[in-house]
Every structure is written in C-alpha cells, then in structure tokens.
C-alpha cells in the first residue's frame, strides 16, 4: 500500500497541483531514497525476497510494483523509521539541505495519505526539521563579470550561444531552469521583455537590457543555426531559443557543464556557478539604488526575506552603512 500511495501522490502532484516535471522528478527521487532505506536498513530485504520496484515518476503503478507492495506496509512508517531514515542520510554525509528536502517530501506524502485516509495519524508531525545554515551568496565584481563573458569563442555558433546566455543572466537574473525553458514567443525584442516560467510554474514578465536583446536577436537569426557545421546540427526544435549540439532544446545540465569549462578558463573561484550571475546582478542592482521590493519582483522571490540577503553581500553597501553609522573622531 505504501508504493501505491506514492504513485497516487505523484499523480496528484501532476494532475491536481500542476507541478513541473522537475518538481515531480525530485519528489520521486526523495521517495525512492526513503523506500530504499526501508528495504535495506529497516527490513533487510534481499534480492531473493523480491525487492520493491523503483518508483517511477513518469510511469503508472505497475503489476510488478503491486506484487511487491506488501513487502513495505504503511504501518512500518512510524517515528522510529523516519528518525532512522534521517540518521542514515546524515551518516551518508548528505547535506543539511538534502536532508530537509527529503523530510519535506516525506511529510507531503504522509499528509496526502492522511487526506486519503490511508493512515489515521501523521508520524512526521513531531519530527523536528534540521536547521540549515544560511550562506551568504557569492557575487562577482564588474571586472570579473567581463573576464567571464570574454571566455566563449563567439566566432562559433555554440560559443555565441554561451555568450548570449551570460548576457541574459546578467541582464535579468534568470534561473538556469527559466533560461532553458525560454521559447521564441516568450521574447519581445521591441518591448525588451521576456516571459519566464519560474518556480511552481508561476509566470512573470521581466525587462531585459537593449544589449541582451540584441545578442538574443543575433543568435536567433544566426545563419549557422540552420546548417550542420563545426560539430553541431541544424535547428530541430523551432520553438526553443537555446539549442544544444543536436539542434534540440538546451538542458540545465549542459549550461552547468559549459559554465564549468569557462570558469576553469577564466581562473575565477571554483564556487562560481550560473546562479552566481543571478546573485551578482541582484547585488549590482542594489548597489546602484534599486529598492529591494523591485528586486524581489524581478527575481521572482516569494518572500522579501530571501531578497534581503543581498544587503549582506555587497562590500560597497557595508562600507556605506559603516561610514554613515560610525561616530567620527573630533
């Protein structure tokens, strides 16, 4: 019954909650992690005993899963099992962020099971959520941004694409997932606006600079986009803005991988990621007088508290606050 409920829960997220494929995939990863703990650590199931089939986020509840569902009844999901699961994650050196996400997914499943009357009480209610240490985001200087942007070879289509991506990151502070999901219809060169699909599939319209808009237009009209050349195939996906070597939509993983290469070439710090550009432009906006509420809207933050952290990032702002507050010597 546990596995059937997991499948029903993922289906509920897909249909009723309209959750994104990325969200559904993350839930399935977390739930599989918990089921594996139950099999390996709590029940000690062996291959001969017929282990539970992996929960698939994009397939229906199968006959094979139904046959083995009895191996992990919902009754074993109690406080002891949940605490043991969290302890096993910690022993496995999982980060606090990962542990919190796994627990959050399990809590969501248990709330769903309560609503469907599969269980009569929620064993996760009294489990404390581990505290995550808030890290100050890394931000680049203007000179570092220029150095990074000069790495792609814009004489090639793929290098030109990567420079466009950097320009758009710095123009509007997009998330990587928002960038790769952009379609031609989401970009308006005349009004300098792009429509983004953010977290929870929430749409928002953000302005882009004339410079970034020109780079995008040049990329969309690049003559090599329609031919096979230099290791890349011609455009296959006619909706997507950013394409990979095969001419299909670029993935977040590819963006991260390309970024790592340019980062190594530039000699910048190893902890710089595509998301660092998002932090960087937010910090630069703040330094140039943009108010936090506007930055919150542009970045698509649900809470202003998330945006406020940028006041702690900028050395320039810290110095200004220090100079204003410090009692000057007579």
From TrEMBL:
Keyword DNA-binding in annotation: yes
Keyword Cytoplasm in record: yes
GO molecular function: DNA binding; tyrosine-based site-specific recombinase activity
Signal sequence range: none
Major location (coarse): cytoplasm
UniProt keyword list: Cell cycle, Cell division, Chromosome partition, Cytoplasm, DNA integration, DNA recombination, DNA-binding
UniProt family annotation: Belongs to the 'phage' integrase family. XerC subfamily.
Subunit structure of this chain's protein: Forms a cyclic heterotetrameric complex composed of two molecules of XerC and two molecules of XerD.
Function description: Site-specific tyrosine recombinase, which acts by catalyzing the cutting and rejoining of the recombining DNA molecules. The XerC-XerD complex is essential to convert dimers of the bacterial chromosome into monomers to permit their segregation at cell division. It also contributes to the segregational stability of plasmids.
Cross-referenced HAMAP family: Recomb_XerC_XerD
Name of the protein in its database record: Tyrosine recombinase XerC
């Amino acid at each position: 019954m546990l596995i059937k409920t997991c499948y029903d829960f993922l289906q509920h997220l897909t249909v009723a909650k309209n959750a994104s494929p990325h969200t559904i995939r993350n839930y399935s990863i977390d739930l599989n992690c918990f089921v594996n703990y139950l099999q390996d650590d709590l029940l000690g199931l062996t291959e001969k005993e017929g282990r539970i089939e992996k929960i698939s986020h994009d397939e229906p509840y199968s006959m094979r899963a139904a046959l083995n569902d009895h191996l992990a009844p919902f009754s074993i999901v109690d406080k002891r099992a949940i605490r043991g699961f969290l302890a096993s994650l910690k022993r496995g050196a999982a980060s606090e962020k990962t542990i919190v996400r796994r627990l959050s997914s399990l809590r969501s499943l248990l709330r769903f099971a309560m609503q469907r009357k599969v269980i009569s009480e929620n064993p996760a209610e009294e489990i404390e959520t581990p505290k995550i240490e808030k890290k100050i985001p890394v931000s680049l200087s203007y000179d570092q941004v220029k150095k990074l942007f000069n790495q792609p070879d814009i004489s090639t289509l793929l290098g030109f694409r990567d420079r466009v991506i950097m320009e758009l990151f710095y123009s509007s502070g997009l998330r990587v997932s928002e960038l790769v999901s952009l379609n031609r219809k989401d970009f308006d060169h005349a009004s300098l606006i792009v429509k983004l699909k953010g977290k929870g599939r929430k749409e928002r319209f953000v302005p882009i600079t004339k410079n970034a808009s020109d780079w995008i237009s040049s990329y969309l009209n690049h003559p090599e986009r329609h031919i096979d050349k230099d290791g890349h195939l011609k455009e296959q996906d006619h909706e997507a803005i950013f394409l990979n070597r095969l001419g299909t939509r670029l993935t977040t993983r590819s963006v991260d991988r390309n970024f790592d290469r340019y980062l190594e070439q530039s000699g910048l710090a190893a902890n710089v990621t595509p998301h660092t550009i998002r932090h960087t432009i937010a910090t630069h906006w703040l330094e140039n007088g943009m108010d936090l509420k506007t930055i919150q809207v542009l970045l698509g933050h649900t809470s202003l508290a998330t945006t406020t952290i940028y006041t702690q990032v900028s050395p320039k702002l810290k110095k200004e606050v220090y100079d204003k507050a410090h009692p000057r010597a007579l």
